[in-house]
Amino acid sequence: MKNLTFFLIALFTIASTHAQKKWTLKECVEHALENNISVKQSELDVDVTDIEKLSAIGNFIPSISATGGVSENTGLSFNPVTNNAQTTTFLSATGRINVGYTLFDGLRNFRQLQRADISKLASQYRLAKMKDDISLFVANGYLQVLLNKANLEVIKSQNQVTQDQIKRTNDLVDAGVLPRGDLLEIEATNASEKQRIAVAENAVTISLISLAQLLLIEDYENFDIVDEGYDIVEQGIESKPVTEIINTAKENRSEVKIAESNVELAEKDLQIARGSYYPTLSAFFGYDTRYTDATSFQSQIDPDNPTVTQQIGVVEETGQAVIGEFPNTQTVIVGADPFIDQLYQNDGIAYGFQLNIPILNGFAARANVKRSKINLERTKFQLEQAKLDLESNVYQAYVDAKGALKAYEAALAALESQELAYQYAKDRYDVGLTNAFDFSQSKLRYDNAKIEENRTKYDYIFKTKVLELYFGIPATELKF
């Protein structure tokens, strides 16, 4: 009983600990990179390129095949060993081994192997880009949750002030210092803030669910993130010259590397297509043997009467007969030789070279070459476009980060001013020098200034992280 109680307590403790787990941004990014479906699909694309390389390597290995067959013939058939026609029933078996090897095919085998290596590299670049994109999605979703939580805390804290003001205003109204209309105004503000709290809580829940779905986490109710320790980290990335960031991005970003790999693949495709202009030289070797259990007819000398005497002519002058002695043969049925003996008695080999010279194939080779040339030019244009797009995106990210910093600094200044104005209005309201409506408006402006400060803060954090990714900082090493 004690052991059962201890087990239940331990199980409850583990479950509670798991339910209370809060995810850090790094854990979210790492989990997404390990479990995201798009990342897994990109990893499968890399695996496919390994298969392509295996096939390219296989082109350098001789082809070996073996064939065999067993048949039974009834009636008039040709004996596969003696090649004589006979009417009987017999069993026959044949076997053959063929070996072929391509000696020269316009270097297409070498080009295919080189293309497989480039294709794998391109797939790895696409995988890296997919991981960067997923990391940005996760970071954006994570920061959205932080923003919603921060806004919720602002509204809750200000509502607590409103609750205190309701109590104080109620006492002042009862004492006859303030009119009841001020109390009604404060209570209306409280009702409005309660509504805003409900909306903010719903925004937090929705953003958490969206982030959990991105991470493929199904336990939405217990999913939560660490909402402390995330602040602006001064790394000075936005203070670097934009040209330095652009040059670094061109060297490190996967977009340009993917486009460069596509150009190399198109060049290899053109070389492979041109290889069809050249002759193909191949060597072959074949070995075959056969077996049959069919009987055969053979002529043998009669052991009892080995010779016979026959007249072979007449002497013309004397008319005397010329007698000759000949072997006395008879036809007998001979059984099949043993299986093992027939394998080497009836075997044969064939070997040689085969030269295939292309002369006219309906312009298929020429069309493939022209098509490959056009594709090569297209990939070159795509490479130039990728560089231009990357440069434009870096400029945009650079300007966005600069603008986000200015917006954040402006929001801080506005928040400071609104906080002073709010404190001044609160002090005046506490002594009865201003009415509840003016106080509520000042408080609302202060709340909005605080929410705007949160928005610009996390917007600036996200945009600096985008700029850092362009600068070559891995997504898992971004600092917050």
UniProtKB/TrEMBL annotation:
It comes from Patiriisocius hiemis. Residues 373-418 form a coiled coil. Keywords: Cell outer membrane, Coiled coil, Membrane, Transmembrane, Transmembrane beta strand, Transport. Belongs to the outer membrane factor (OMF) (TC 1.B.17) family. It comes from the Bacteria. This is TolC family protein. It is found in: Cell outer membrane. SUPFAM superfamilies: Outer membrane efflux proteins (OEP).
